[in-house]
């Protein structure tokens, strides 16, 4: 009998490891949001950006199919285990339990790959959204700083004009301004 850890499950296990590593790297506080934005919006990734939705859904469907296949195999080996009498065929029973265990591992791998795929999609879209929000915030900050500078200049001009008016004119006893001749 062939082993249940076939090429497809070996590839899926390495894919799960790669996804877990990416999630850990994306969680590191060392890399800023702007840097992630630059990485995710690089020229290489921009080529895939137009069809990223298709790639995501195709791979998502593939992971769903692998999950269904693993569940089917798991059920098949569970029924096989029930049909074998341990006292009559102990080797066959042990072999059946081993196959069932491997199919459960494959099911767990495919479920983990599916979950991490969704987590990665959420993290990437969240990082890109946060980067755009921070970019918009910095633009708004620059506008506010510019307006504050203009307001300060206007207040300075106003205070220098009022100070010049008090110096040039005199204030009468009734509080009205009179020009000094």
UniProtKB/TrEMBL annotation:
Residues 5-132 form the BAP29/BAP31 transmembrane domain. Residues 156-181 are annotated as: Disordered. Coiled coil: none annotated. GO terms for cellular component: endoplasmic reticulum membrane. One of its GO terms (biological process) is endoplasmic reticulum to Golgi vesicle-mediated transport. InterPro entries: BAP29/BAP31 (IPR008417), BAP29/BAP31_N (IPR040463). Keywords: Endoplasmic reticulum, ER-Golgi transport, Membrane, Protein transport, Transmembrane, Transmembrane helix, Transport. It is a multi-pass membrane protein. The chain crosses the membrane at residues 12-31, 52-71, 105-124. This is Endoplasmic reticulum transmembrane protein.
């Amino acid at each position: 009998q062939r082993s249940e850890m076939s090429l497809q499950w070996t590839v899926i296990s390495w894919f799960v490891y790669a996804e877990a590593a990416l999630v850990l790297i994306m969680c590191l506080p060392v890399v800023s949001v702007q840097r992630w934005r630059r990485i995710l919006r690089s020229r290489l990734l921009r080529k895939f950006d137009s069809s990223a939705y298709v790639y995501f859904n195709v791979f998502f469907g593939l992971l769903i199919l692998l999950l269904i296949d693993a569940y089917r195999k798991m059920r098949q080996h569970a029924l096989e285990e029930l049909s074998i009498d341990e006292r009559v065929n102990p080797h066959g029973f042990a072999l059946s339990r081993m196959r069932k265990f491997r199919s459960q591992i494959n099911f767990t791998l495919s479920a983990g790959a599916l979950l991490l795929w969704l987590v990665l999609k959420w993290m990437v879209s969240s990082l890109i959204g946060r980067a755009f929000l921070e970019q918009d915030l910095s633009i708004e900050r620059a506008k506010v700083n510019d307006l504050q500078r203009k307001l300060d200049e206007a207040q300075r001009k106003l205070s220098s004009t009022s100070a010049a008016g008090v110096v040039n004119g005199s204030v009468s006893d009734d509080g009205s301004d009179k020009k000094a001749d």
